Amino acid sequence: ASYGPNPICKGCLSCSKDNGCIRCQHKLFFFLRREGMRQYGECLHSCPSGYYGLRTPDMNRCSRCRIENCDSCFSRDFCTKCKAGFYSHRGRCFRACPPGFAPLEELMECVEGCEVGQWSEWGTCSRNNKTCGFKWGLETRTRQIVKKPAKDTIPCPTIAESRRCKMAMRHCPGGKRRRPAKTKDKKKKKKNLMERAQKQHSIFLATDKTSQ
What we know:
alpha+beta, Hormone Receptor, Insulin-like Growth Factor Receptor 1, Chain A domain 2, two-stranded antiparallel ribbon
């Protein structure tokens, strides 16, 4: 309908020049449109965004959805389509899906996600399958997948993780003590310097005798 000095009362059973439709024909929905400080009645086949059709014996009406961020709803408390950027879940709208549910982007819905159990205790600190002989190693903990996701495209959270740990026994019982490579290199370098110094000293003594 076009509202102005002469409103068009399409689908109305009764109409007011100032307020538009007052009553609608059967099967149509009465919608009260607000424009600034004024309001006008319209008779529609379907209710606009943010409203749902409420059928009553007296007259069908467009009632506002009471769910936050809802674009269209089935009833006052059940949303069927959320506004852009929100996911639909059990008649509600969410910016992010609740725990245990994953977003299905193509439908903007929350579906059952991958459910995992509790983390196990941290395992034994080891390195190269040994629990001794090194200063540092790795320890690992795991958790099981309790429920697989509704769709294969939905990834599961990580089920294993490792962290650096300090060995309880740096030296293995009965084994040779491991020496860091750096220590060996230092000793070798020191030995070479000593040998070079001794050689230079011998040359100096021989030269000194010759000069005498």
